[in-house]
Amino acid sequence: MVTFPILAVRKVIERGKTDAANNGGFRNPYYGLKPGQGEIPGLWLVGDQGVYIISNGKLADGERPLVLYSEECHPIGNPDWFHYKQRHFGGDDGIEFIDAEQLIPLFDRNLRCTHLNVQLTETEVSLSLIAR
Question: What is the pLDDT along the chain (132 residues), one digit of tens a residue?
Fold first, then answer.
């Protein structure tokens, strides 16, 4: 499981929407293999050097997406990040798209919760909210 502060997740989603408005839409998380899928507001859950989420709006040349590392799997400050990533995300690098239309209503219904909890299995991504 990896967790992210909800307020910061909202900022990642908003940054994606702003980038999309300024630069012509949303990026396709499937490297063009599934045209039209995932080109909507959301975020990408990425596992490579740690586990993090990034904004998905198209970017102008030289711009970088907003990145938010999980609290448990940041390569700076957590010497065990590699083993944690392998155990909770898998050994291979990867990207999972999470639709903002799933997240925002979940956040809005649970205002006392502070963190998004993401659990991955070989076949699914589960989202839940927790209070810390």
Answer: 999 999 999 999 999 999 999 999 998 876 667 776 668 899 999 999 999 999 999 999 999 999 999 999 999 988 999 999 999 888 888 888 899 999 999 999 999 999 999 999 888 899 999 998
Query: At what angle are helices 6-23 and 100-109 packed, to 10 degrees?
Result: 140
Distance CA 40, CA 16 (A): 10
CA dist., res. 38 & res. 92, Å (int): 21
Distances (CA, A) of 102 to 6, 112, 128, 130: 13, 18, 11, 16
The span from the CA of 73 to the CA of 77, in Å, is 9
Q: Is 63 left (phi over 0), alpha (psi -120 to 50) or beta?
A: beta
pTM of the model: 0.91
State the SS3 of 34-86: CCCCCCCCEEEEEEECEEEEEECECCCCCCCCCEEECCCCCCCCCCCHHHHHH
